[in-house]
Each structure stands twice: as structure tokens, then as C-alpha cells.
Amino acid sequence: MQLHHRFFCPHSRFVRLILAERGVEVELIEERPWERREEFLRLNPEGTTPILTVGSGLAIPGSEIIAAYFDELDRPETDRRLMPQGAIARVEVRRLIHWFNVKFFEEVSGPLVAEKIDKRFMAPEHGGGAPDTNALRAARANIRYHIRYIGWLAARNDWLAGPELSYADLVAAAHLSVADYLGEVPWNDDETAKDWYARVKSRPAFRPLLADRVVGTPASATYADLDF
Amino acid sequence: MQLHHRFFCPHSRFVRLILAERGVEVELIEERPWERREEFLRLNPEGTTPILTVGSGLAIPGSEIIAAYFDELDRPETDRRLMPQGAIARVEVRRLIHWFNVKFFEEVSGPLVAEKIDKRFMAPEHGGGAPDTNALRAARANIRYHIRYIGWLAARNDWLAGPELSYADLVAAAHLSVADYLGEVPWNDDETAKDWYARVKSRPAFRPLLADRVVGTPASATYADLDF
Q1: Is residue A78 very low, low, confident or very high in pLDDT (cuts 50, 70, 90)?
Q2: Could you give the domains of chain A?
Q3: How wide is the angle at C-alpha A29 spanned by C-alphas A70 and B145, nearest 5°?
Q4: Cβ of A58 and B99 within 8 Å?
Q5: Can you give the pLDDT at residue A77?
Q6: Which residues are within 8 A (CB) of B209 and not within 5 positions of it... i.e. 6 or more apart?
Q7: A204 alpha-carbon distance from chain centroid
């Protein structure tokens, strides 16, 4: 398998966590989607990361479709499923995947990564340049209510969507992790959210993400620290 | 079941088509999401249409999660499934659901409905007012390549994602239908796309959508005509 990804794309990170939790080996191929590389667009006309290629000819675009693909490989009796069994619980996991992949991404992780990382690697004609301070200010305000929401979810159950670890925890942690790298998570705002994140972060599947670095932007002090 | 929807929200229309194809009766409750009605936000904190409530206490937000919910109600041996069986075919249907719900919506159906319908019902503080002609011009340029893409997909197979009608056809037709209502589909650009749409449109499940009207914006001449 090959994963076309970016190291600080939260949707790509969600897929790396899924693969690692399942013990699946994958070759990582870094993309700069804004360069619209032809081979990449053939794999996914939408031109977005991540894309997972499986065997010959199957290219699975997007973290939600990749998550559904692996869920359907499992037989219900298999252990280590990242989706619960019941219809109501499955709706809740999917709701949270959408919440983080769309809402948290639009309001927090998307602008943080675009302004503080991607723009430094983009040519001016692709949108590169200095960060937009208004976008950063909005993201910093938005993350505060998201952290409280995560704390509220984690207080209801052991994990975000129920009593077991699920895709909901992986997607939330993937998006939070890029904000954490950039030192943008107000951890002291919510102890419950912090405790939940410490539990996800200490899983072996998380370790490769904690080793990621981007040139010119050092990781925050909390990023790779399991007892932050 | 109750569907919280808007008549010209393409995501809501996709769900109405799913329910009608399955022969499921539903009570329609119209929402104006921008008014952020409290009961509506309790059902879905994202505050977007559609939301389907099923029995007591289960609120399913978003057309993709609603589609997945019904798919999982089916046993594989059941007829009238709107998802194919094989993993590769399922990836393709999901890819197209995402393509229309995200990309076509961002580039075409979203701006057309926002500018030509929703803004007329919004108070100025919610963004109401005159249509943005730049947004309309962009949507009119974008729909031309989407129509060619639909024609290309329909030429490969009988239906957009394969030899059988699937969610892919319903989602594409739902998004196209709002553009068609507004007279914004260049049908003469692609005969194959037009033939495919005529086939979807003539299904009994489509009939209720063809009766929808919005005050002050009459339907285009092609909208309710099965031989347009």
C-alpha cells in the first residue's frame, strides 16, 4: 500500500493512525496538492490528500472513504474494530468524524496548517506568502470552544464516542495534533480533554506522528512529551 | 421519521430521493439553518440540513451518514440496494457522493442556491441581500466542466458508478436538480449527461421534487418536463 499524504495534513494523519492501529504497513509518498501533479490528479480528480492505493488499480480518496473501506474488511466478530456495532453508536462515530474533518478543520486545523506551514512552501502564484493574522486569530478563538466540546465528550464516556476507542478518537487526535505541534492548543482550558489526548497520544500507533518535523517550524514543547 | 430539510438544499434532496427509492414515508420539516433554531441545533450541533430523526432519540445528521445508515439496514441479499457489493465499486460510489456533496456543491449548487434563493429569505444580518454576480458567474463557468464529467461517467456505464442505479446517481441528480430549477444547466453541452438525467428524473422517486416551487422564483422550462 502507498499513502499519498502530507505530514501535517490532519486528514492524512487520521489515516496513518488507522493503519497503525490495524498494524498495516504503508509506504508514505509526500504530495504538495497545490502543485497539481498529474499522476496525483489521476488517482483523485479532487486533488486532495490523502489517497491510499491498495494493490493494483484501487485508489481510495479521502480519510472517510478509507475508514469505511477498512471497516468493511472486518467481519463483525473480529477484534480491534475501530467502529462500534450498533446503528446508533455508528451514527455517533460518523458524526464526530464529520465534525472534526469538516468543522474543526474549517475553523481550526485547516487555517493553522495553511497559514503557519503550507504557505511557506507554496509559490506566490499558489497562494504562498506571509500568514494571514486574521485567520490565525479566528482559529485561536475557535479552538477554545472545540477543546471544551472534546472535554464534554470525554467526560460522558471513556472515549469520545463511547466506551471503546474508535475512529472518533483517532480523527479528533489527528486534527488536534497539528495544532499541538504549532503550540496552539490551550491545554490548561480543559483537564478532561487533556487527559483524553494524553491517552490517545501514548498509544504505540501515535509514535510515528510524534517524530514528524517541519523545517523552520520547531515542534512545541508539549508535542512529543507524553506527560505534557 | 422526520426530515429536517430545506426544499432547495441539494443534500436534503439527496436524502428525499434515498427515502423515496426505498419507499420510506417521512414527515418534512423545513428549516432555515441560518436562524440557528435551538431545537435544531440540539439535533445537530453543526447546524446544517438535512437531519433525519428515526424513532426516539436517534438524529442522523448529513446525507452521507443517512445514506450509510440505510445501507447498513440492508442485508446483502436484499434487493433495491443503492450501494453495490464489491469493495472497489463501493469506493467509487463513495468517491462520487463526496465529489457531488463537496466539490459540485462548493463550485456550483451551493453558490447558485445561496445567491439566487437563500439570500432572498435571509435577514441582512444573516447575509441576506442581492446576489453576488461574481459568485454566479463562477458557478456558471464551473458547471460546464461538471456536465462534461457527468457525461463521461454516464458513457462508461449505464449509470454513473456502474451498471446499476446507486447513491451516485441520486446525489448527482439532487445537486443538478437545483441548478436545473434555476435554469442554470447547459443541457445542450452534453447529450449523454442529458440522457442520463432524463432517466433519473423520470423515476417515480423524483416526482415530489419536481413539484417543489419557491415563491418569487419560477421553475425553468426544463425543470418539470420529463422530455426536456
Answers
A1: low
A2: 87-203 (1.20.1050.10)
A3: 80
A4: no
A5: 62
A6: B13, B16, B17, B174, B177
A7: 16
Distance CA B157, CA B33 (A): 37
Instruction: Please report the pLDDT score of residue A93 as a whole number.
Output: 97
- Say whether A58 and B87 touch across the interface (CB within 8 A): yes
Number of helices and strands (H, E) in chain A?
10, 4
Q: Could you tell me if the ipTM is greater than 0.85? A: yes
CB interface of A with B, residues 98-127, below 8 Å? 98-99, 102-103
CB contact under 8 A, B65 and A95: yes
3-state class of B205 per DSSP? helix
pLDDT at residue B79, as a whole number: 56
| A60 phi/psi in degrees, rounded to 5 | -105, 115
State the pLDDT confidence band at B76, using cuts at 50, 70 and 90.
low
Question: What percent of chain A has a predicted confidence (pLDDT) above 90?
Answer: 89
Alpha-carbon span B150 to A122, nearest angstrom? 32
DSSP bridge partners of A76:
none
